[in-house]
Amino acid sequence: MFAPDNHLGIFAALMGISALAFWLERTRLGAVLTGTVIVILLSVLAANLGVIPHQAQTYDFVFEYLVPILIPLFLLQGDIRRLFREAYRTMAAFMIASAGTVLGVLAAVAVLDLSAVAVDAGIEASQKEAAIAGLFAATYIGGSVNYAALGEITGLIRDASFFSAATAADNLFSALYLGILGLLPTVGWIANRYRQPTTPQSAKTEQLSAPSARSLCFALAIALLLVVSADALTTLSQLPGLRYIWLTLLTLLVATSLPHVRFWCAGGFELGIVLSFPFFGSIAAGADIAAMLTVAPILIALVTILLTVHLVCLLVVGRWLNLSLPELLTASNAAVLGATTAPAMAAAKGWHDQITPGVLVGVLGYAMGTLIGSALFHLM
């Protein structure tokens, strides 16, 4: 049923795993983990048990066609003026988290010899370090959507063995980090050193109109038109690596200049979440644990240094700026795991005033992750 050449069968497996993750998310443990982490763990388990393959053309289809559509579906919520108006404190925390990620990458580069990592993708030794740094900077500022984009921009995605190992390290440590974020508010020594939230816990979140067949069609049509427009600009500029940058800028331009587009496309963000689950599954299926172990020491060291610096920077600077722990942890979640898990964690923790800011800064992460990751890659 799930042989590598059975494309529909593998896609059915991905959607089945996604549906199971949505269902498990309703349990007490699932609410803490969130559906994103569950679908990642289930896909890693299924692939390493041989239920689904590590490599298949179905995954290539997901990367080539679903990933570009996901970006505008999420970013259509990204009215830049609304970010400053409704989520300025959480956005400040997100900027600290992003700076912590960049500092963590630079610290890892300074300590580790990433140019010695075995990458067989036609990349020169002098560029390996920059490519790996850009890849992990992007994924820990915006999540897995940016990870796939930087994999294509840097060329690392062409080396299946390395990309599988890096994906395994990224997914496993992201799940572990999410658990740490969930535990930090329960540590009184830490929680008592931060200001208590002043926004009432019953703060209302913005209510969009109910999704309809028309609004879902609008969302999908606009997303596809933006992808096609970005591809046209990429062809005209003759710079293939700018595809996702054009797509990000075009979508933010539409979302900011036409703020009502998020009402016209009600349900588009949720549609993006639905499509993101098989994407997460495709990424996680490539996480060959055996392959990871061959290059695990340096990847484990890289991610450990990066996330440690990220968290220390977040907590120290955040306390100095008098930000609350819910604001800081929501921002960190949005940076490391994306816009799907940040509002879910906020809801599970009862931080209702952080649900909408969690979505907004997560969307900001989708916009910034590819830009910062690719800038870091080219600068290095």
SSE inventory with pairings:
Elements: H1 7-24, H2 28-33, H3 35-48, H4 57-75, H5 80-86, H6 88-111, H7 125-142, H8 144-154, H9 160-183, H10 188-191, H11 213-237, H12 243-257, H13 261-264, H14 268-285, H15 289-320, H16 325-337, H17 341-349, H18 355-379
Helix pairs in contact: 1-3, 1-14, 3-9, 3-14, 4-11, 4-12, 4-14, 6-7, 6-15, 6-16, 6-18, 7-8, 7-16, 7-18, 8-18, 9-15, 9-16, 11-12, 12-18, 16-17, 16-18, 17-18
Protein model, in words:
With 380 residues, this protein is mostly helical. The protein has one domain: Na+/H+ antiporter like fold, CATH 1.20.1530. Helix content is 75%, strand content 0%. It contains 18 helices and no strands. The chain has helices spanning 7-24, 28-33, 35-48, 57-75, 80-86, 88-111, 125-142, 144-154, 160-183, 188-191, 213-237, 243-257, 261-264, 268-285, 289-320, 325-337, 341-349, 355-379. α3 (35-48) packs parallel to α14. The termini are far apart. Mean pLDDT is 83; it is low at 200-205.
